[in-house]
Design a protein that fits this description.
Length: 116
């Protein structure tokens, strides 16, 4: 059985959104404890990620969850490579956004290589 990420990748390819050599950064939110801090973060993070070459593919709550999935916000960003994704995360602009976020959310960020 394919993983949920593989299923998402195939769906994006069918929609014409996938690029074979691209890598993805996926953020899975567990909770948003402070919506105001999250909003301040989002205003700073969006342009910082785009300046780093990131292309937002998914931003929002899932339409449906299965198994142990959480019905929480998901963000999927496409980059041209792992190094570009890491550089965008480590950039001064994104680090400023992270300071605005503080401990307002519980989440995990995964940078994954695309399937060939």
């Amino acid at each position: 059985m394919p993983s949920s990420l593989e299923v998402a990748h195939q769906a994006l390819l069918q929609l014409g959104l996938g690029i074979a050599a691209a890598q993805r950064a996926v953020t899975l939110y567990r909770s948003i404890k402070n919506p105001d801090a999250f909003a301040a973060y989002a205003k700073l993070a969006l342009p910082a990620i785009q300046a780093g070459g990131g292309r937002f593919l998914v931003r929002g709550a899932p339409a449906k969850v299965y198994e142990a999935g959480l019905n929480q916000r998901v963000v999927m960003i496409e980059f041209d490579g792992v190094a570009q994704a890491v550089a965008a995360h480590d950039s001064a602009g994104y680090q400023t956004a992270l300071k605005a976020l503080g401990d307002a959310v519980e989440r995990e960020i995964r940078i994954v290589e695309a399937m060939a």
